[in-house]
Structure formats: structure tokens, C-alpha cells
Amino acid sequence: MNMKPKKILVQTTIPPTDDDWSIARFSRLGSLLRERRDDYGNGLYEVVMRDREMPGRPDPVLSAIDESDFDLLWLLGVDAGNGLTEEDSAAVSRFWARGGGLFVTRDHMNLGSSVRSLTSVGGAHYFHGVNQDPDESKRRVDDPYTTSISWPNFHSGANGDFQEIEIVAPIHPVLINEESPTGSIWFLPSHPHEGGIGAPEGENARVVARGKSKITGVSFNIAVAFEPRGNRGPAIAHSTFHHFVDYNWDPRSGSPSFVSEPPGDAILRTPQALADTHRYVLNAAAWLANKTN
């Protein structure tokens, strides 16, 4: 049996930039998805990796994605607030409304805040300057070390290390790992300043995973799952793109020059941590594509 592979667009919200979090720094994510096979050895996913084109103008791919043959969009919000035009956001929202699977992630403070313009799933992302966390107790600095970054900036550990996550019951399919002693994903990469997310009111969405700050002990949300509704596809809002970047899977990959925090290397010494991360990615892709992984 040879089923047609699902087509995934993995895209950042900035143009190609060597010294930034452009798509070249997510190569391991793309490879993991491309290499996934079914029981017959057929590839499950066709993956297109790209950065956006000129800021301020509609991106030729994103602004027409609802008319494309893409099945999933993995949107990496790495911009300073201008990463999506109105045309881009409207097309992504229509793509989701017509059944496309949507994964949207960002990072600390206002990084990736252009995703706020997306229908419904954008409202799951809380920033410093727009759509602030309704829980005022979360509007405070958590990471005290990198003083140039303000809230939300939950400190789950160093880049290159990993964190133990909390599964929010009932366990969601994207978090199942039958090979784990707990039956679920246990670890994800850590990051010194994760962003804030939550489930918007009135949506068929809920928090499915949480982390805990290593500085304050505060619990913060890592993933919000939006169940399919009507023709609308499934979606996931995720706290930080650092859970998927090469540097956080292998700190030897290097980072942009503006990253000042010293990295750890625990993820290299603990195979289960990276295996759990890979399982989460594959689970998410399967769920968003309405596949059995």
C-alpha cells in the first residue's frame, strides 16, 4: 500500500538571515519529519522548509496557503512583531478553517508576536506588549539573568539541557509514548526564557502540558491543543520554538551571536530526553494530519 504523503510547510516569520533563528537552524526538525516511514517503508511526510520573503509584503506562500496542497503548517514565530502581513494571517486562518493542521510556536516577551493576528489560535499566545496573560501573577520577570528580556520569560533550564514536563490529564494523543516508563512523554528541551500561552475562552481547546520554572517554581503552560471542530482542523499552540531548534537538540550546532547564556549538554548525555522530543514532534505531526502514528 502506498498512501500519498501529507505535505508539511515548516516556515519562519523572518527572511533568510545567517545570524538569527532562520529556517537553516531547524534542519533536524525537517529531517526527522522527512525520514518518518510507514510499515511499508513509504515516507509519511513531504516537507518544505522556508523562511518568509520580504517583510511588509504578503509572503507568496503563506498568503496563498489556503489555496495550496499543503496539509499542515508548522509556523515558527521568530520575528519582532512584523512577521505576518494581514494577507498572510488571513490566508493561514482560512487554511485552518478549511481543515489544515496548524502548529504555532514563538518565544519570550514579544518574540513572534505577529502570530497574535491568527484567528483563535493566535489568542492562545500571550506577549509582553499585546494580548497579555489574563493571569496577572504571570506578568512578572521569571528569568533574572538575561536582563534585556522581560516577561513572559519562564526559565526551564539552560539551552542544551532538558526539563521534565507535567502531563495535564487526560493525556492527549500528542503526549503518548508507549516506550516510556510512564506511558507518556517525560522530557522536552529546556530554555532560559519560554513564552506564555493559554487556552482561550469559548474554544474547544485545553492545556495539555506544563513546565515548571527552575528559578521561581512557577508552573507555566507548554502546549495548548485545539480539537477539530466542524471543517476546522486541529491545532497546537506551543510555548517556544526552542524546543525544536537544532541548538536545543545539539548545542554543538551553534546559535546566533546574540545568545549570551552558556549552554548545557545534558540532552546529549540523556538519550531518553531527545527521544521524547522526537516522539512529541512525530505525535504532533500525526495528530495534526489525522494519522495514526
Provide an overview of this structure.
- The chain is an alpha/beta fold and 293 residues long.
- Helices cover 16% and strands 19% of the residues.
- The chain has five helices and twelve strands.
- The two termini are 16 Å apart.
- The mean pLDDT is 96.
- Tally of DSSP helical segments: 5
What does the average pLDDT come to? 96
Low-confidence stretches: none
**DSSP strand tally:** 12
Q: What is the helix/strand order?
A: EHEEHEEEEEEEEEHHH
| Spatial shape | globular
Secondary-structure class: alpha/beta
Spatial strand order of the main sheet = 2-1-3-4-12-11-10-7
The amount of beta strand, in percent, is 15-25%
**Span between N and C termini?**
16 Å
Radius of gyration from the alpha-carbon trace, in angstroms: 18 Å
Residue share in helix:
10-25%
Q: Biggest β-sheet, characterized? A: 8 strands, mixed
What is the gist of this entry?
The protein is of the alpha/beta class.
Topology overview:
Blueprint: E1 6-12, H1 27-34, E2 45-50, E3 72-76, H2 86-97, E4 101-105, E5 125-126, E6 162-164, E7 166-167, E8 187-189, E9 196-197, E10 205-212, E11 219-226, E12 235-238, H3 246-249, H4 266-269, H5 271-288
Parallel strand pairs: 1-2, 1-3, 3-4, 4-12
Antiparallel strand pairs: 5-9, 6-8, 7-10, 10-11, 11-12
From the structure above, extract its key features.
single chain; eight-stranded mixed β-sheet; two-stranded antiparallel ribbon
